[in-house]
Design a protein that fits this description.
Blueprint: E1 2-3, H1 4-32, H2 37-49, H3 59-74, H4 78-90, E2 98-99, H5 101-119, H6 129-144, H7 149-166, H8 190-205
Helix pairs in contact: 1-2, 1-3, 1-8, 2-3, 3-4, 4-5, 5-6, 6-7, 6-8, 7-8
This protein binds adenosine-5'-diphosphate and magnesium ion (2 copies).
């Protein structure tokens, strides 16, 4: 069971993680994009961290506000995608003070469905969805096997990292990288890398 304090911890850790990873994400995006993914994520998550001193009636309202903040501060392709993820993540958690592993699973599914509806990516398009999809499957499998939310998130993060690495050889079919066609192959997708960081951060903080 994760309480609101844990989610506050997660969002704080996420801002720190994105600040530390800014250069790396920008390097990835400079190879197949416009070299702004690191600054986009660092700016957006820093704005979310600024919310954390405020009072929120429940976890869902915190996550929803975090999503709206990402939409308004990140811009680009990733702002609406991550913003939608957090806004949808909040939905199934409405009114809950303690979040169980199964409840978080339903919330993650809603969040990833939001990413899909927004971005219309398919598996293998070389996007963040290539990290989200295996992560979600690994999370569900872990919970079905009896894992609590922390270890299930650990399994999800590991699967996301494998999905991220598998984007390397792919030719991008969505987003800016798709403009490069075949030349996008041979580089890891920046959004799949930031999704992996987000899940690793969740695995460190939610339990
Ligand atoms: P921009 O491309 O507008 O500069 P960012 O650099 O912040 O935005 O984010 C780029 C990332 O967004 C890509 O690496 C990819 O993972 C993700 N992305 C782009 N388009 C889509 C899409 N249609 N569906 C899912 N993810 C996408
Ligand atoms: Mg970019
Ligand atoms: Mg951009």
């Amino acid at each position: 069971m994760a309480t609101q304090d844990r989610f506050v911890e997660w969002l704080g850790d996420l801002a720190q993680t994105m600040a530390e990873s800014q250069e790396h994400l920008t390097e990835l995006d400079s190879a197949i994009g416009d070299a702004d993914h690191g600054s986009n994520m660092a700016r957006g998550t820093a704005a979310v961290a600024e919310l954390l001193d405020g009072e929120f009636p429940d976890t869902a309202s915190l996550l929803k506000k975090a999503g709206m903040t990402l939409v308004s501060t990140v811009g680009g392709a990733s702002g609406p995608l991550y913003g939608t993820f957090f806004i949808r993540l909040a939905g199934p958690l409405a009114g809950k003070s303690d979040v169980s592993a199964a409840e978080l699973g339903a919330a993650l599914r809603a969040g990833v469905d939001g990413v899909l509806q927004r971005g219309k990516a398919e598996p293998g398009d070389k996007t963040m969805y290539d990290a989200w999809a295996p992560a979600l499957a690994a999370y569900d499998e872990a919970v079905t096997g009896g894992s609590d939310l922390g270890p299930a998130l650990g399994a999800a993060a590991k699967a996301a990292a494998e999905g991220r690495d598998a984007t390397g050889p792919l030719v991008a079919r969505k987003g800016r990288a798709s403009y490069l066609g075949e030349r996008s192959a041979g580089h890891i997708d920046p959004g799949a890398a930031s999704t992996t960081l987000l899940l690793e951060s969740a695995a460190r903080t939610l339990r």
